[in-house]
């Protein structure tokens, strides 16, 4: 370790807690919460406080490049030069024969901003395809589109410090008590000091967040928009609409008003499974709020109508004028540590860096000129699920996977398996042999992990932090930026003569000049010496911007926010049938992270919930003669899962829950939840519909 003690940021969720790392010869790396950090003020959740176990245990690490010369050859150790020369030769040959869109990159919200920027420059600027997408597509792409449609740009308006200034929280489609624990702890502490603070939770499950709420609306999955419209109707009828704000700072209110006033609370109550009085009570709490924060995550985003759900929720903030004021605003929670940084640098198939749009020819030219390339392809890139469809059908021939495990995390795992088997060439750039996807690699590249490389990340509140290198990576593992830069040089691309990671950051910061995310006055020195900054930071003395839209000027052409009407009010997912009568919803548990490649090796974290369990309501369990602990078989039209049942009244009748994490090659893959999930995506955001798959369930009978 270069310093005896360094300050960095947690590598798990988008909360972005500050961590102090120490290293000594006796204990190795240890971590504590940074008391002076504005996000967590010394607190860490179970995952963060056990991060050092992941760092100290290198037994699963990929230590050197491995390659096979053909599908029938075994993997063998090779040098970095051989590995990257082969990658360059295969990509060149495939592109020459089949065109640039025959290759693609699938990356991760855990990549640092410099990595995200560099790989997007490489793919969009030099490989001449827009086939680069990220696993953040699975978590927040519906929120991105929702913000753009409402505010004109992908801009989260709030700061975490708004938590302590709010008096009403609407948590919908999220379980922050488990998935964003430090933010939820801040809400709890605020409520402990201010008992009048109200928390409303909308969720089909009695989660830990719901159990701490003043009001839990246990909604039938998929009916969120109906409920938001019923709340809006009540708000308008009770005189809670902020007419000045609506008149001066929004568009399209009349159509929205007509739509929601035509709805019926009684009908909404029936469709959503929530008593009318609870809908009225929720609306009255929101209407009386001085500071109203809505928080949401995958429960809204991962849906066939995820964008519509987002805009319908955002409308409630516009209706009540609760944007750009202390303690108010809509607040999407990002799942991954740098999902926000990825958005900034255009880390998705349909985006360009600094919030420019791929489908805008002026933006394409600006970015191409900045990178010194002739042009950027106007053809939209394939999104996460589309890329694997293209591999399966043979349209795409090669994929480069960085820091993510699609075999476990994408919907319909069997299809992903087929896609990877069908690919001519699979590169997996990873830290760990634990990632199931790596068994499909033709080329396995060892990457440096957290603390083993430097770079920056942006958390859910637009806060940028610098993460220093503290220890050396094991074996021959290299920082991702170095792997990508070396590959670009093997491809003879200009524009990759970066000597340091900071050089990449400088180039990106320059690109942000005079944009909505201007950080052209930021650099590593300032981040190291002055701490974190929330973008934009539009001049040298600027302290950063905690809250957006304080001037009520939005990024739309009229500078007004827009009330959007949904294209569909009711869920468009396949509905339950006689064959598949249950709705399966999937999600996270408290102590695991994604596909468990890191948290799965920490024994302390495995004690909370050691194996996947199917949550089933007592009435459904009784009808199917299922008891807690029984092995059950869950079946959808895509596949099967075999797990233990947990009978619990925390879930609605007709709904089942499975955690999404497990996927190791155990029991013939029968504990892998995504064997079941459907392949439907939101038509605009292309985010998968993980929260609504129809399934059947039966007690397992040994053959
Ligand atoms: Fe890490 Fe998120 Fe936990 Fe904070 S809340 S310690 S960022 S996992």
UniProtKB/TrEMBL annotation:
Domain of life from the UniProt record: Bacteria
UniProt GO BP: cellular respiration; nitrate assimilation
Location of the 4Fe-4S Mo/W bis-MGD-type domain: 3-59
This protein's UniProt keywords: 4Fe-4S, FAD, Flavoprotein, Iron, Iron-sulfur, Metal-binding, Molybdenum, Nitrate assimilation, Oxidoreductase
Protein name: Molybdopterin-dependent oxidoreductase
Family: Belongs to the prokaryotic molybdopterin-containing oxidoreductase family. NasA/NapA/NarB subfamily.
Gene Ontology annotations for the cellular component aspect, listed alphabetically: membrane
Chain ranges passing through the membrane: none
Species for this entry: Flavobacterium yafengii
Co-factor(s): Mo-bis(molybdopterin guanine dinucleotide); FAD; [4Fe-4S] cluster
Entire-sequence positions represented here: 1 to 703 of 1170
GO MF annotations, alphabetized: 4 iron, 4 sulfur cluster binding; metal ion binding; molybdopterin cofactor binding; oxidoreductase activity
Methyltransferase recorded as keyword: no
